[in-house]
Design a protein that fits this description.
single chain; 125 residues; mainly beta; five-stranded antiparallel beta sheet
Length: 125
């Protein structure tokens, strides 16, 4: 298994408690909080590549709380089921998918110009 995917395993089965967005000055980061720890997606402003870590939530002075945003609020209180890291044709990992209710992806992150776009994924009936 790729080392880049290890953070998904560390967060798997944990209950999502909050979602935060933080501008580091070097690119945006999205923090999915699972109690005192977070699955952190960071984007590289030069390559738009994503790095993922699972670590204690850092001190954040100016983070935006996205917990009530419709794209994320439906997952609060749910356990992370699985995650995927997407790689483009140039070899950069610039997207991620997450699922909370089974194997079908439900929300995605894509980096565009050093910022994350949140993609709501809906299953067709």
């Amino acid at each position: 298994m790729s080392e880049n995917l290890q953070p998904f395993l560390q967060a798997q089965g944990r209950q999502l408690t909050a979602v935060l967005s933080n501008d580091t000055g070097e690119g945006e980061e999205i923090l999915l909080a699972f109690g005192a720890d977070a699955l952190i997606f960071r984007c590289n402003e030069d390559s738009d590549a994503i790095t993922i870590s699972f670590e204690p939530i850092p001190e954040l002075d100016d983070a935006d709380d996205l917990t009530t945003d419709p794209a994320w609020s439906r997952f609060i209180g749910k356990e992370l089921f699985t995650g995927w890291l997407m790689q483009n044709q140039q070899g950069y990992a610039d997207g991620a998918l997450l699922s909370f209710d089974g194997v079908v992806p439900e929300v995605g992150l894509n980096v565009v110009a050093a910022a994350f776009e949140v993609l709501e994924i809906r299953q067709r009936s």
